[in-house]
Amino acid sequence: MAIVSFHSFKTTGPVPLASYMRMCLTGDSGGYYTGAIGQGRDQFGVEGDFVTSPEISQIFGELVGLWFIAEWMSQGRPSQGVQLIEVGPGRGTLMDDMLRTIRRFPAMADSIEHVFMVEASPQLRDAQKKLLCGPDAQFTQCDFGVQSNGRHIGKPVVWAESLKSIPIEAEKVPFIVAHEFFDTLPIHTFQSAPAAVTPPRPSSTTSPGGSDKSTETDSAQAHPSPPPSSSYEWREMMVSPTSPAAMASAQAKSKAAGREELAEEFQLILSSKPTRHSRHLPESSPRYQRLKHTPGSVVEICPDASLYAADFATRIGGTSSVRKSRPSGAALILDYGTSDTVPINSLRGVRHHRLVSPFSAPGLVDLSADVDFTAIAEAATLASDGVEVHGPVPQADFLELMGIRERAEILCKASGAKKDTADGAEKSWKRLVDRGPSGMGKVYKALAILPENDGRRRPVGFGGDVAPS
């Protein structure tokens, strides 16, 4: 049974795709990540809807932790003011493995003031608290939200409902990780179409004989000329309810074909005229502007992704309003998406580890779309002159340069693992670096936002090494 109802659509009419995604994922009344799945239901893992990299192998989180340790070393080993921030932390598995790794480097662990978990879901916040702070840990109120004492490095773990709840402070050193976060942010989809022609209003004059004499606009109104070939505009793809009759027909065809498919309760339609989003968002970058005059061109744009990237860059590099004596910190983004093209038709739904229509069972299906890494890089560098961007690089390259193969061998030897355990561990890490057409090592990518250094240093995992401090 769908959680997102038809009622709001009956009131407002078709809504932008981004609005639909936001209602389905984080809506107050039954969003996928905010309670709709029901008590005791877990989105993650074998029993849930999908498995993430940290759930596949502990090595993933360990290597991400090592990456931040390397950055901390390369930036002079700051002794205080370090913030560890994760956006969209899921069950907390990634941060748990990161902190367990950082604990082995006491100087860095001591430099951390707070561990921030940016999480909107009360259910997920509770699961994260149990993992990071212990099953009996309690929340206490703090300036940023709620907090509890972490069990790994003894520092406060703070939960904030949004990144805006964490002040941007010039003297802080923010280390930010975003794993499979950007792909869940709402997207707008636009299609290029011939611009609508508004015919001139007919004017009438009275002839000397007293009869009305219409101008040539009468003919033009009856047979409007097609728009010039260069006259195109962006139209927005909107989400509208599917009619009950169409749903019944689709289900009947599915049943006749021997398929069990969820009914598509909603559908995408093209707006009949420009919207406020289509007038502005596709004009925000030359990448989209160049596609406007190709009929039928489709672009997906995620404004929230650009806002988050700009926030990361501001925290790291500073701006005219946030003046840092020296840029510091780093952001690591790991997700799937395109590195040199604009995403199109990438919206997908997942339920029980199977691809399903994103317009079926809204609120019960996970929705995601390809990440536009180029747009993220543009937003970061435009937001702050104090940052530079590295990547994206395939996840396989990143993890192999970070030493995933060597770490897997050490784990198997240290644990004296039985053959079936060792085989399982090997299968797990190889899954993370699979370079096949749809393999995680190829589809997923890593991008880093670092303090500007005029290209003198590349970070580890991106072709560089730890810089001497």
TrEMBL record:
Region (Disordered), start-end ranges: 193-234, 269-291
Keyword DNA damage carried by entry: no
EC number: 2.1.1.320
Coiled-coil regions listed in the entry: none
Classification via Pfam families: Methyltransf_28 (PF02636)
SUPFAM superfamilies assigned: S-adenosyl-L-methionine-dependent methyltransferases
Reaction catalysed by this enzyme: L-arginyl-[protein] + 2 S-adenosyl-L-methionine = N(omega),N(omega)'-dimethyl-L-arginyl-[protein] + 2 S-adenosyl-L-homocysteine + 2 H(+)
Function statement: Arginine methyltransferase involved in the assembly or stability of mitochondrial NADH:ubiquinone oxidoreductase complex (complex I).
Family the UniProt entry places it in: Belongs to the NDUFAF7 family.
Protein name: Protein arginine methyltransferase NDUFAF7
